[in-house]
Request: fold
Amino acid sequence: MSSFGDRYVLASGRSGHDRLRMLCEIHDPRTREWLLRAGLGRGHRYVEFGCGLGYVSRWAATQAAHVTAIDLSDEHLGEARRMADGAGLANIEFLNRSIYEHGLAAGSCDYSYSRWLLVHLNRPVDAMRKIGEALKPGGIMVCEEVDASEVYTEPPSDGYHAYRDLAMEAGRKRGVNYAGGRLLHTWAREAGFEVLDVAAYQLHYLTGQHKNFWSWTFLETGPTLIQEGSLTEGRLRELGESMRAADEDPRDLRQPAGRVGQCPPG
Reply:
């Protein structure tokens, strides 16, 4: 396990890579649509904060003139570089830096993007202000954040609903808000941005591997919750079994939530 950002704690090995790939499979189509709607294209300089394995950054490198991909995980960046090299992308650079100290020249970027990053930060508004410093006048910030408080199943699953409550409480203890997707527009205004557009979408699954994204996430965070005293090993197994049973039931509807917004500096 590794700790990144303020208090972002998830597995960063093979399992963590596979989970991030699934996250991209779920959300990348809408992410690309949003960035294209925002106007990303040839001649633009694009930066992604919290790029992870670089799936979105590599796609952006096929659309923009230059891409900077920033993350705090050396392991993630190493894999992202390997895949970028394999794709023959020469217009992308990867930097191991914090969003608070990104080191980018002021006004050097046309577009910025981040996904599920701000909800893990104790100071999301300050992070947005740092993003704004890197953007040119009229530049666009596109953020995609989760609202974990809206994860649900139908019919109800005791395991999933207990996990949701446990996750929200764990966030409060860390000083972060895992329901930050619903606050994205207010954070942006406080940071000095003009909000151009917001949208919320709720993907639902009855079957398929994407249905188990949240149970996978829970099992990866479980050891940290146990270490913090928020969960026992027995309770982890109990909730995990309940969530997996719901994943395997084709009558059970699963909803992973997502929200997006785009705004230029004010």
